[in-house]
Design a protein that fits this description.
The chain is an alpha/beta fold. The protein has one domain: 3-Layer(aba) Sandwich (Uracil-DNA Glycosylase, subunit E). The chain is 36% helix and 13% strand. The protein has a five-stranded mixed sheet with strand order 1-3-2-6-7, with helices on both faces. Strands 4-5 form a two-stranded antiparallel ribbon.
Length: 220
């Protein structure tokens, strides 16, 4: 299996180490998940509890890609198990999708956070950190071979489509991809949780459901 670890986001960044340095000999999701647990491809591993690798159906028709694990994900070692994951599960159900039949992962596998009192709040990963972790994501894409990818949030969308991609300009669109037949970019569920106004929370949630329905239709 050959992986292209380059992306439009990292052409100006020299990477001395990346996830590719920790690849296993065996090519299976379980082998990669075990190898990723030892990854030190960027500095994020130092403050994270553990690697949070993707989970879900091994040959899912749909892969959902977020940004980074959250606090609860970091503690439990599974993607989308916190408040944002609960909202995502509800949106998937409203869109007629079974969470157990999709594959969930993040562009970056270690929790990046900033202290706010006793709380650990999510911080946006840098281009260097996204590029260093990209080989794990590409391995998942190669192994799962999804028909449709759903990027949750701008960071995930830019990781897949380049840093010039603007999420708000392409909501509700089926976009071409070298990794799948289609990519759909939508809001990350945490955006709805963080929105201060009820009307904005509802609007973001409704857009997510609309875009997930679009992704579901693309599978037919």
């Amino acid at each position: 299996m050959k992986f292209d670890t380059s992306t439009s986001m990292d052409r100006t960044h020299t990477i001395s180490r990346s996830a590719a340095d920790f690849f296993p000999a065996a090519h299976s999701l379980n082998a990669f998940r075990e190898a990723a647990a030892l990854c030190e491809g960027c500095a994020l591993f130092r403050r994270a509890t553990q690697t949070v690798f993707g989970r879900g159906a091994a040959h899912a028709s749909m892969m959902l890609i977020g940004e980074v694990p959250g606090d609860r994900e970091d503690r439990e070692g599974k993607p989308f198990v916190g408040p944002a994951g609960k909202l995502l599960g509800e949106a998937l159900a409203d869109a007629g999708l079974n969470r157990q039949e999709v594959y969930l992962t993040n562009a970056v596998k270690h929790f990046k956070w900033e202290a706010r009192g006793k709380r650990r709040l999510h911080a946006k990963p840098s281009a260097r950190e996204i590029a260093a972790c990209r080989p794990w994501l590409e391995a998942e894409l190669e192994l799962v071979k999804p028909h449709t990818i759903v990027c949750l949030g701008a960071t995930a969308a830019q990781a897949m489509l380049g840093n010039r991609f603007r999420l708000t300009q392409h909501l509700g669109e089926l976009l071409p991809s070298k990794w799948s037949r289609y990519i759909v970019a939508t809001y990350h569920p945490s955006s709805a949780l963080r929105a201060p106004e009820l009307a904005d929370r509802r609007r973001i949630r409704e857009q997510m459901i609309h875009d997930l329905r679009l992704a579901a239709k693309s599978l037919r």
